[in-house]
Amino acid sequence: MLLAHPAVLDDLVRRYTALERTLASGKAGPTTRQRMADVAYTLCVSTGTRDIDAALVVARHRLPGSGPGDDSALPSGA
Predict the structure, then answer these.
(1) b vs e for 28-52, b when ≥16 Cβ sit within 10 Å of the residue's Cβ?
(2) Among 2, 16, 17, 62, which has the minimal tally of Cβ within 10 Å of its Cβ?
(3) What local confidence, expressed as pLDDT, does residue 63 receive?
(4) pTM
């Protein structure tokens, strides 16, 4: 499996988190929801996962500075 560059993963996680905050604030429209869906899809593809929660765990695990931790949520071979 090809692995996304850590800088790409970092950008995607930051974008997803920002969009998540916007949605939580109640100020999000259809465009924001679509952007969030697009970023979630890209994160899943970039990490070889099928859902956003797993994608975020894998992406954060691959970022520079992430220390050893509980990787039980990572798919085998990640």
Answers:
(1) beeeeeebbeebbebbbebbbbeeb
(2) 2
(3) 86
(4) 0.79
Those residues with Cβ within 8 angstroms of residue 12's Cβ, 6 or more apart along the chain or in another chain: 4, 39, 42, 43, 46, 59
Q: pLDDT by residue (tens digit) across 25-63? A: 998 899 999 999 999 999 999 999 999 999 999 999 998
Phi-psi region of 26 (alpha: psi -120 to 50; beta: other; left: phi over 0): left
Q: Where are the alpha helices (H) located in 1-78, listed in sequence order?
A: 6-25, 30-47, 52-62
Would the pLDDT of 74 be above 90?
no
Token couple for 1: 């499996």
